[in-house]
Design a protein that fits this description.
Distance between the termini: 56 Å
Shape: globular
CATH topology of one domain: Glutaredoxin
CATH class of one domain: Alpha Beta
CATH superfamily of one domain: Glutaredoxin
Structural class: alpha+beta
Helix content: 10-25%
Strand content: 25-35%
Radius of gyration: 19 Å
Number of helices: 6
Number of strands: 13
Order of helices and strands: HEHEEEHEHEEEHEHEEEE
Largest sheet: 9 strands, mixed
Length: 298
């Protein structure tokens, strides 16, 4: 196969016009482990670590349904200073908590299990994660690394490249944590604009995949409201009520004081025709799309 014939899942998704809205995976806890060597295709699972420590961390992560990501600074593969780990948590109250530590021996990673049970610190700067996991999917590297470079040049202390975050076909993917906000279909220029607006308290519908504390139809509903009424802060909209009948959801959203009091959003789901959704996955799969069919101001 020539370079011109090579399949790239992100190119194919753009050609199909795959919808971003409602594609952020659910979750509120992240475990980050700085690893400067080569990343295995399956991330943490593939690391050659002390078996007891690895089992302890994996079990603790499973207990709270945490997403485990390997991280590194863009372009910095040689050892320099201690490696870091972090536990990031987005609480139901909207509070964002972080706990950071360092490790030099495998056994030091056992601290992660303790940190998962600790409250963590408030008011820490957010972490900007750029998926650049080329061993998992080619598009994550081809599209992710230029975004990692651009964001790292702008915010060197906030930005890390990371392993698979989901949605390879939407590369480049960026996650702001523990805010729990997923962005996709980014390039160097749009990623800087999106993160700059995010850090200023303005989340735009464009490039938004969703909020990880919401379920897919709720994510799509919030995205539609942002698209119609303009950018807003991470917690400006709250889900008040969600009901479902077959493939239709009715979602009531409360707005901030500067917007209408409530919105009634109708969301329908359907499956796409089977297609190849990742660069490495040769099987054909269908995806669920959440389409907003009506927005009513309450």
């Amino acid at each position: 196969m020539t370079a011109a014939e090579r399949f790239f899942c992100a190119d194919a998704a753009r050609t199909r016009g795959d919808s971003l809205a409602g594609t952020a995976p659910y979750g509120s806890v992240w475990i980050l482990i700085e690893y400067r060597g080569g990343w295995p295709p399956n991330g943490f699972d593939g690391l050659d670590l002390d078996p007891d420590t690895k089992a302890l961390v994996f079990s603790a992560a499973q207990a709270v349904r945490a997403r485990m990501l390997l991280i590194r600074r863009h372009g910095r593969h040689s050892p320099e200073g201690p490696r870091r780990w972090a536990v990031l948590r987005h609480e139901n109250s909207g509070a964002h908590r972080q706990q950071w530590g360092t490790w030099s021996r495998d056994e030091d990673l056992a601290q992660i299990a303790d940190a998962l049970g600790a409250p963590g610190e408030l008011d820490c700067p957010p972490v900007v994660l750029v998926c650049a996991h080329g061993q998992h999917d080619t598009c994550c590297a081809v599209r992710g690394r230029p975004v990692g470079r651009a964001l790292s040049e702008r915010w060197p202390d906030l930005v890390w490249e990371c392993t698979h975050v989901g949605g390879d076909r939407f590369a480049a993917n960026v996650v702001v944590a523990p805010d729990g906000v997923y962005y996709g279909n980014l390039d160097a220029r749009s990623s800087v604009a999106a993160v700059e607006e995010h850090l200023s308290g303005r989340i735009h519908a464009e490039h938004l995949r969703g909020y990880t504390d919401l379920f897919p139809p709720q994510q799509a509903a919030v995205t539609a409201v942002l698209e119609r009424f303009g950018p807003a802060g991470r917690h400006d909209y709250a889900i008040v009520e969600t009901s479902r009948e077959h493939d239709c959801w009715r979602i009531r959203i409360a707005g901030p004081p500067t917007r209408p009091a409530t919105f009634e959003v109708e969301v329908h789901s359907h499956r796409t025709p089977p297609s190849q959704l990742t660069c490495r996955g040769l099987s054909m799969s269908s995806a669920v799309v959440y389409e907003v069919t009506a927005i009513r101001v309450g």
